[in-house]
Amino acid sequence: MRDLTGARWRKSSRSNGSGGECVEVADNLTGIVGVRDSKDPHGPALTVTPEAWRAFVSFAKQS
Predict the structure, then answer these.
(1) Which helix (DSSP H) or strand (DSSP E) does residue 44 occupy?
(2) Do the beta carbons of residue 23 and residue 12 sit within 8 Å?
(3) Closest CA to 4 of 23, 31, 22
(4) Tens of pLDDT along 3-61?
(5) pTM higher than 0.85 for the full model?
(6) How many whole angstroms separate alpha carbon 54 and alpha carbon 63?
(7) I want to staple 9 with a disulfide (CB 3.0 to 4.6 A). Which of 21, 24, 31, 34 is the partner?
C-alpha cells in the first residue's frame, strides 16, 4: 500500500449529494492519486498513477 500521509482529500464533484455514493480523491501527492469511499475514510484506498487517473476521468466524462 502506498503512503497517503499528507493526502488532501476532496469529494468528487460527481458524487451523489444525498450521502449515498461518495468518492473522495487526493491528487496532491507526487506520483500517485488516492481514491476512497468517503463513508469509510479510515478504510482502504485505491492508488493509481496520475496518468491512469486522467485517463479514467476522461473516459468517465464521455459516458
Answers:
(1) none
(2) yes
(3) 31
(4) 899 999 998 776 666 666 688 999 999 999 999 998 898 999 999 999 999 999 999 88
(5) no
(6) 15
(7) 24
Cell 480523491 sits on residue = 25
Q: CA–CA distance from 34 to each of 28, 56, 61 (Å)?
A: 9, 13, 19
Query: d(Cα 40, Cα 22) in Å, to the nearest integer?
Result: 10
pLDDT of residue 20: 65
CB of 23 within 8 A of CB of 36?
yes
pLDDT at 14: 67
Cα(2)–Cα(15) distance, rounded to whole angstroms? Answer: 24
Cell output for 7:
493526502
**Three-state DSSP class for 26?**
strand
